Amino acid sequence: MNCCTKIYLIKILYLIITCFIGGILLTSCRESKQDKMMRLVKKWNDKTIVFPQQMTFTAFRGDSVVECKKKYSTYAIVTYVDSIGCMSCKLKLSEWGDFMSIVDSISKRQVPCLYFFHPKKKSELISLLKRTRFTYPICIDENDSLNILNGFPSDMMYQTFLIDKDNKVLAIGNPVHNPMVKDLYINIISGKQPESTKKQRKTEVIISENLIDLGEFFLTIPQHCTFTLKNVGDDLLVIDDVITSCGCTSVVYSREPVQPGKSLDLAVTYKADHPEHFNKTITVYCNVPDSPLQLKITGDAQ
To answer: Percent of the chain, pLDDT > 90?
Structure first.
């Protein structure tokens, strides 16, 4: 990868990060946050990922355990997940499975994903892998060796890397949490130039409410609520993707573009798997100036 291409990728990463944080921050503090993220991208660009000398990748297939050697000749994806917070929410195993199916198809299975999990309880992680039928090989890093060697960013959005055959970082960001990062990874792996100047006409929306409190409820009863987005602009409202912060939260919506003056409902379902007070985020990527939009649900599962 030549110097011009690397500079180009830095600019693309900057645009992706800017879009990602644009809907979260107030205008008064946006510049400082963008500067911080730009420094993060520059810091990790071309940095070499250091791997522990002893690594065991294991696939849990039914009742059998298969040890695998991870080799790659062009690219690899490295993702690290720590033990803080909800492990199932962070892992998004089904989304990773869908993403790797795409990567396998465009790379002829030549680009592996190196999953490093640092779980609080190994047994719970293994149970989750089996329950979700996740068959990709993973490394259970009980000593947190990979993170200690590299000092990864604390934000889980930036604990995933696309690296070359020399372990140098080409791109940073979590492709299952950010569709723009996903497109960037796929473009690099497939040899396409990222489309930094893709033009999409913008519109304006009014959201019925940004936060819905579901109150107290029995955890065995699924909870439902609806966010309504009204297109008050002059162009079609196009939803590129909707991503939830947790696998216990799902969203159903129409994929059709929304005409000016019309509305779109996001039907949200929350299924608790244990008692908790929760705050879940729903991120909507669409063609409005402050995309992505951040919606939240909260409540107490008893």
So the answer is: 28
Q: Which of 268, 206, 212, 207 is nearest to 242 (CA)?
A: 268
Q: Which domains does the chain have, with CATH numbers?
A: 3-190 (3.40.30.10), 205-301 (2.60.40.10)
Q: DSSP letter at 2? A: -
pTM listed for this prediction: 0.66
Asked if residue 158 lies in contact with residue 175, where contact means CB atoms within 8 angstroms, the answer is no
Which tokens in the block code for residue 141?
A: 């890093």
Contact 88, 131 (CB under 8 A): no
What CA–CA distance (Å, rounded) separates 290 from 302?
A: 36
Helices (H), the chain: 3-22, 27-44, 87-91, 93-107, 122-131, 145-150, 179-190
Do 126 and 143 meet the contact criterion of CB atoms below 8 Å apart? Answer: no
174 close to 79: Cβ distance less than 8 angstroms: yes
Query: φ and ψ at 222, to 5 degrees?
Result: -60, 140
Q: Which helix (H) or strand (E) holds 221?
A: none
Whether 52 has a pLDDT exceeding 80, the answer reads yes
113 vs 110: CA distance, rounded Å: 10
